[in-house]
Amino acid sequence: MALPVTRRRERLIPTQWNPFPEFEELYDRMGRLLESTLGEPAASGTMMWTPLADVSEGEDSYIVEVEVPGLAKDDIDIQVSGNELVISGETRQQEREGVRTHRRMRRYGQFEYRTLLPGDIDPEGVQARLDNGVLTVTAPKSDQGKPRRVAISQD
Q1: Res 63: pLDDT
Q2: Which residues form the domain of 83?
Q3: How far is CA 20 from CA 11, 16, 23, 28, 91, in A?
Q4: Cα–Cα distance between 67 and 60 in angstroms, integer?
Q5: Which of 34, 48, 66, 117 keeps 20 to 30 A from 86, CA to CA?
Q6: Are 77 and 132 members of one domain?
Q7: Which residues are registered as beta bridge partners of 85?
Q8: Per-residue model confidence as pLDDT tens digits over 61-120
Q9: Is the whole-model pTM more than 0.85?
Q10: Where do the DSSP E strands lie in 4-108?
């Protein structure tokens, strides 16, 4: 059984269409995508990139795990200000004489990872450990940020 064909006679396309706002939005989106992929220019003019990281929360602390393969602890700087955690450093490319590079996939140069932790932390108790290219920063929650049980008294 064949269905009858129906045709519309009205035009669905407006007569005055301006494509420029859509092109500008597409241009902005592509710029943001390239910045997130390649990094953003640092003050020195080189590209700064952001390492991959996970942020999780336990009962007593926040845990931030950042991928920094090939770095030593002296190459990494960790700063805490309020509930903001800033991890920065620089990866350097090894110079090999007489070797021609065909493909470069790893990132080199300055990096920075910034995150605002969801609650107040105790900055004096922040600890960091570097193991197999993963930096683990443990930031204990402050007593103000921890929930506490309130007892109800009877009259």
Answers
A1: 97
A2: 49-93+108-146
A3: 22, 12, 5, 12, 41
A4: 23
A5: 34
A6: yes
A7: 80, 115
A8: 999 999 999 899 999 999 999 889 999 999 888 788 888 888 877 788 899 999 999 888
A9: no
A10: 40-41, 47-48, 53-57, 61-67, 76-81, 84-91
Does residue 63 share a domain with residue 53? yes
Cβ atoms of residues 70 and 151 within 8 Å: no
Q: Are residues 55 and 81 in the same domain?
A: yes
Mean pLDDT, the chain, integer: 82
Residue 127: which pLDDT band, with cuts at 50, 70 and 90? Answer: very high
pLDDT given for residue 13 in this prediction? 58
C-alpha distance from residue 98 to each of 91, 94, 95, 101 (Å): 22, 13, 10, 10
Start-to-end CA distance of the chain, whole Å, equals: 82
Helix, strand or coil, per DSSP, at residue 34: helix
Q: Give me the pLDDT at residue 130, please.
A: 95
Q: How far apart, in whole angstroms, are the C-alpha atoms of residue 45 and residue 41?
A: 6
CA angle 130, 47, 33 (to 5 degrees): 95
